[in-house]
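Work package 3, deliverable 3.1, input record:
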Amino acid sequence: MKRCALVFLFAMMAAGIVTAQTLEVLWMGWPKDQVMQLVNDFQAQNPGIKIDIQLIPFGQLFQTIEVRLAAGGGTPDVYIVDGPNTASYAARNYLLPLDEYFTAAEKNAFFKSSIRAGTYEGKFVSVPYGTSSAGLFFNKEIFEKYGVPLPSEKLEDRLTWEQVAELAKKLTIDTDKDGKPDIWGLGIEQIDRPYLLLPLMQSLGAEAISPSGFETKGYITSDKFVKATTFYGKLFNEWKVSPTGLNDSAIAREYFGTGKFAMMLGNEWNIARLAKFTNLKYGLAPFPYFAGGVPVTPTGSWHVGVNPKSANKKAAVQFVKFITGKEEVIKWYKLNGIAPARPDVYAALPGDFSNPMWQLFISEMNSTAVTRPDTPGYSQYELILREAFASISYGADPKKTLEDASARIDRELKKYK
Amino acid sequence: MFKSNKTAWLFVSPALAFLLIFKIWPIGVSFFESFMQTSFSGKRSFVGMENYSYLFLHDPTFWNSVKVTFVFSLLVNPITLFVSLTMALLLNEKHFFTKFFRTVFFLPTAISFSVVAVIFAVVLDPYNGLANSFLKLAGMNSQPFFGSANQSLWCVILLCVWRSAGYWMMYFLAGLQGIPQTIYEAAEMDGANGLHKLFRLTLPLLTRTTSFVLVSNTAFNFLMFAPVYIITQGGPRGSTNLLMYESYTSAFVIADMGRASTITSILLIVIMTFSFLELRLTKAKFEY
Amino acid sequence: MKKSKGVKNGTLFVVLSAISAFFIIPLAWILSSSLRPAGSLYQYANPLTWRTFFPSAITLENYRKIFVDLLFGRALANSLIVSFATVILSVLVSSMAGFALAKFKFRGKNIVFAIVLITFMVPFESIVIPLYVLVRSMRLDNSFAALIVPGVGNGLAIFLFKQFFEEVPNELLEAARMDAASWLRIYAQILLPVCMPAIATVVVMTFMFQWNSLFWPLVATHSSAFEVVQVAIATNRVTEDTSWANLFSSAIAGSAPPVILFFFLQKYFIKGISGTGITG
């Protein structure tokens, strides 16, 4: 009898029923009470797997990921990946190729641009968790108060940047007559980030980086790139319709929400985030483009990756599929408001997404969205270009600044080819 | 001084063990990293002094950072020293309000630099911040603060002084306790006045504390980067681009460990040099 | 005589109040913002009204939210455990080492002192990866030990104790030696009691160092059971938004324990309690 019991026990263990695994997940510092709802769902449906999730504040997220992965070892098993960093992680073998775990149907459940962003050298390595889009939010009351007709919220009436500049000039107003504007015509939510600004240059036909992904000379130094950047600089320094020195997107949103910006170029998450400003009456116009150019919108957001050194690959992939699956993404959208990377979520929540603002974003994601440059050197590129944009907003000469930045970026990228 | 190898080593070993294992070993590893370069695919190779020569010969951002860091250091250290010492001297006597004010001055230290940076970004907002509201009340123009290449570094200095003055004040208070009251009484009998007591007695007797504060504060400030990381990102136009911030972004944003380690190795040599000079300068001269 | 002393004290009080305004004003604004219902960030900053510092409707909702929904209490408890454990161990080993450096001539002394100095001249960020690898190889990661042990060796504390112990007259120690006291007894019963300000200072120094650490706890531990106070505060800033009300309330709540500690250690910083040759 005893021997039978023992054999049975061994058989059970072999079947994996008795053993419990623990998955270490390194996640973004979203609010605990929201994230735990998803984690508890997973644990309820997968009793053999326990999730040990770590929520890291945004300011330390990439740094912690770098340290953990550089130290080697199988920790974490699953981690959150900022879309454009996919190439850099994949190049250093920090991401497990997932082609064998995902069927074609499963991959097709995501936006094509998101799948592209999660692919490196032909291998699918990071699973899209969210995506993004951006547009021109505007404060209806300010427009009405100063007698300026409201911009159209329709895709086909997309404003040109030249028109936006004119509107901004009319709506930069010094209400208390102290010589300084109290209402600014145009605020830019992420004031100097390539994410939000590259579409301007790309709208004029400039390219962000060489096809190889390792050279910027001739690309960010091209006449078209410089021209678009010069326009950007004029917003701050010549027409003075945008305020310098607001580096934090949360602060920019405060300004818009309390009526200090007439317009704000900002992300889709504002639909959820502006709700707390109960007195705000706002509209959303499509992301502007340059006259004679093409409309271009930014896109891309978080992905999820698996550590190739993980000792629990199967469980890890299970978790990844779960958290990026339709049900949990619906739940996460309802808790957090970020744009899902799966069309079926939009279809499943017609109540939310039939809102014209969401419809606008969805159309953009399907037609004008351009993902960020695909290069393992994305973080170098972004850091240096961002500094360049910041300097230009403070009055530096666009052409010279971009040439210096290009030289720096190319030097950095060359060192590591 | 007592002479005894065995006793001294017995007393020193536990701390030394902790230091060697958890500080010196990683420092050594990091120092060697400055002679390596990592490619995009993660391949590491030995490159000798190339990281150093690149910084010194081909990298204008490095030299700008050196300049900014030295300006920062030469301003923030004396200012902090002066403010914290003054506060300690003012609060050395026992009154009913002493404990209260000492705690008030200490309050900023209880908040981490990162959070202080967020607070200052909001308080010194160029258009709607608390600071500008006060200035407007006083009839002055609102200032760009962190939004101006001229003011930004000064605001970083202000932030550092605000946050650390109370902390260093604590060390001076502790040091002041070691000065016997009898010395002052004797001097008063000789007709010494307040300033004389201060400069001829108190300050010289505080030399050991002063040298401690000077050396540690210098080191802290050379390694400062949190306000830059959170508020200014080195700007506007490089005016707050401290060396440690360069090192930090190299390590964690660009994953260029070689460059990061090179900068911190250079910083170490700079800090050691300054400390050596400071220790020489404040060699305790007064025995009583 | 008495009257001028009163005037002198009065002037002192006014001067101190003026200086404290500089320190208090930003904190007062944060405090009052944390007691307001979560609203717009600049609502009361511009323009300035009396409401800026005295909210018309006080609410503890922001504190309730962080303690109940976000488990801030656990973060406080973890940080208290880690900080106090580090304080006890660090004060012990650092004072011993400071004693040796202050009062003894021994072979290798200069090297030891150089090591002590170097350890605080190198930023934590540059050693975090090798330190993490080391701690992991010792199987210490994801434990309180991972947070405590690397913080015990503190060059700054050793340096401070050295400076303070140097002030103690050798005669005091020689007298004890003549009474055939062992060095351990001299250290414990003569030296330490006389240097309470130094000990109080190192207690605060070590406590603050652990209390304010953010990056190392994130790297060295990953279970939410070990979340420390600075992580809890910092998580209020996410990519898409900053929860200002929660950030302010957690900053205030997170600063309370160090301030309380400092306040109660004040008696060691008051003249007349300790120090050599001090009369009442």
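Chain C touches chain A at residues 38, 40-43, 69-71, 128-129, 132-133, 136, 214-215, 218-219, 222-224, 231, 234-244 (CB under 8 Å).
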